[in-house]
Design brief:
mainly alpha, 2 domains, two-stranded antiparallel sheet, 2 strands, 59% helix, globular
């Protein structure tokens, strides 16, 4: 699933409506599967499913933008796994920001990009932007400028 997601990701912002529709269908199908997995097993930790499958579970949750309830649930389960030392704070930060942006709220870690202005990626609005890099460092995310440098 992660490989299919990776191959199809460029379709998310494609100018071709058919590609956008294919992306939406793919992410919805994957999210439905993840929801069933969460019902049966809880969060897919590396210990439970292996490192690659755990990463795929996170990626599916991250891209389930049209299934906000699933994303909220994934945040709760992932937070529990982080508290138990079975998942990383970095992944939780990305997913929390994604949910906050999808809810129309300010993000905490500046991981979600709203667009590009003057050739530079611009994050969706953030809580206390002057402390952004401090919060990012606390969860293992590089400073914002270093994070976006490859895209400039």
């Amino acid at each position: 699933m992660a490989e299919a997601d990776h191959r199809a990701a460029p379709w998310a912002n494609s100018g071709d409506p058919e590609e956008q529709l294919a992306w939406r269908r793919l992410t919805a199908e994957h999210a439905d599967w993840l929801g069933e997995f969460l019902d049966e097993h809880g969060w897919p930790t590396a210990e439970l499913v292996g490192v690659e499958a755990a990463r795929a579970g996170w990626l599916i949750a991250q891209h389930a933008d049209r299934q906000l309830e699933l994303q909220r649930r994934a945040v709760r389960l992932l937070a529990r796994a982080v508290a138990q030392g079975q998942a990383g704070e970095r992944e939780l930060a990305f997913l929390r920001d994604r949910v906050l942006v999808n809810e129309g709220q300010e993000q905490v870690y500046g991981t979600q990009i709203a667009g590009v202005r003057d050739g530079r990626p611009v994050p969706w609005p953030c809580v206390e932007p002057e402390r952004l890099d401090e919060r990012r460092a606390a969860v293992g995310i590089p400073p914002f400028e270093a994070y976006v440098a490859p895209y400039c």
